[in-house]
Design a protein that fits this description.
By secondary structure, this protein is α/β, with parallel strands linked by helices. It has 2 domains: 143 residues, NAD(P)-binding Rossmann-like Domain (Rossmann fold); 231 residues, RNA polymerase sigma factor, region 2, helix turn helix motif (Rna Polymerase Sigma Factor, Chain: A). The chain is 46% helix and 15% strand. It has 16 helices and 11 strands. The strands form 2 sheets. Strands 4-3-2-1-5-6-7 form a 7-stranded parallel sheet, with helices on both faces. A 4-stranded mixed sheet has the order 9-8-10-11, covered by helices on one side. Strand 1, helix 1 and strand 2 form a beta-alpha-beta unit. The termini are far apart. Bound molecules: magnesium ion (MG). Magnesium ion binds next to helix 7.
Length: 383
């Protein structure tokens, strides 16, 4: 029996993790989780279970819900998040938080000797070296919950040496068939309409700019210790081949599956075992054809920035990520247009100055610099 904590339980990955846990009550037990404020999203599971530690953002919510759900203990704020991430009985912490905010609880959980199942890619992008050093020092495991990285981990599960390159596949997101001129007229609801995956808002927007793929290149670099220049991205519209590994003998191993995040979530929890998952089988005849195309870096400039930042291994990736988080939030709030996201973030990336990244504080400072740059740009101030 594995005791599991879920950070970000009311989001898309969090809810699907609860679903996977409920399908295997003999293998997995949830003992704690965090939600920002959407306790309503998990009221069903809270009613059916007891004895969990539940973290919410605000103290008044913690008080309110401890009356509504007296069978659970409610904590709040960043201290509460760290407490739930480090619960003594926890074996694995699923980090499904969105953004750099997930970094500190991840590091706290690692220091508390918890295994990590990571959907929070911004953590590895901004503080990859720090996180990977902590993983090694504490002798815990880090399993990716990202379809591409889970695919690569599965391709490497029987042989993980002599890698020539990693090939990440990219659907291209909501606007893959639009040119940059056409992006001037797209709306928020167009942007949130991903062709293959149902996901949270931030990652869906990141998919549309392909910043998501850029973050994934950097994430793959840290997870698998492969140089950035050996990580390729190709467009694959069907999201069936989730990624591939080419070995030195030019053999290529791929992992295929329906676009259902419960596959990588369950694999991260059950590894090295594989458990049954009652979802429809992949129907390749129905899929009919699988297509692959090169990526146009002029069309998706944030992908180019991510490659550059990934190669530098300094504070630039944290700053780029911070700038992007701020720009996406501004777009979701209706304050800037879709096309402004990459225009502003590319400009920020080219203008900011970077330093070394040797501590979490360096990453926090770089993240802040990126956010501030975008905030000033949007408010019309000098940047
Ligand atoms: Mg992905």
């Amino acid at each position: 029996m594995k005791n599991i904590v879920i950070l970000g339980a009311s989001g898309s990955i969090g809810l699907q993790t609860l679903d996977v846990i409920q399908r295997h009550p003999e293998k997995f037990r949830c003992i704690g989780l965090s939600v920002k404020s959407r306790v309503d999203m998990i009221s069903d599971v809270l009613t059916k279970n007891f004895g969990w530690v539940v973290c919410v953002e605000r103290s008044d919510d913690a008080l309110k819900y401890s009356i509504e759900f007296p069978q659970h203990r409610f904590v709040w704020g960043e201290d509460g998040l760290i407490e739930v991430a480090c619960l003594k009985e926890a074996d694995t912490v699923v980090n499904a938080l969105v953004g750099f905010v997930g970094c500190r609880p991840t590091l706290a959980a690692i220091e508390a000797k918890k295994n990590i199942a990571l959907a929070n890619k911004e953590t590895l992008v901004s503080a990859g070296k720090i996180v990977m050093d902590a993983i090694k020092r504490n002798g815990v495991s880090l399993m990716p919950i990202d379809s591409e990285h889970s695919a690569i981990a599965q391709c490497l599960s029987t042989h993980d040496e002599n890698i020539n390159r990693l090939i990440l596949t990219a659907s291209g997101g909501s606007f893959r068939d639009k040119n940059r001129l056409e992006l001037n007229h797209v709306t928020l609801s167009d942007a949130l309409n991903h062709p293959n995956w149902t996901m949270g808002a931030k990652i869906t927007i990141d998919s549309a700019t392909m910043m998501n793929k850029g973050l994934e290149v950097i994430e793959a670099h840290w997870l698998f210790d492969v140089p950035i220049e050996k990580i390729d991205v190709i467009m694959h519209r069907q999201s069936i081949v989730h990624s591939m590994v080419e070995f030195d003998d030019r053999a290529v191993i791929a992992q295929l599956g329906t676009p259902d995040m419960r596959i990588p979530i369950q694999y991260a929890l059950s590894y090295p075992q594989r458990l049954k998952l009652e979802i429809p089988s992949l129907d390749l005849v129905k899929a009919h054809s699988l297509t692959f195309e090169s990526v146009d870096f002029d069309r998706f400039p944030l992908l180019r920035c991510a490659y550059l930042a990934g190669k530098r291994e300094d504070s630039s990736a944290a700053a780029l990520n911070g700038a992007n988080e701020e720009a996406v939030a501004a777009f979701l709030a209706g304050n800037i247009r879709f096309i402004d996201i990459d225009t502003y973030v590319v400009e920020a990336f080219e203008c900011m100055t970077y330093g070394q990244l040797s501590s979490l504080d360096d990453a926090i400072a770089a993240d802040k610099m990126g956010r501030e740059w975008i905030k000033k740009k949007i408010s019309g101030g000098n940047v």
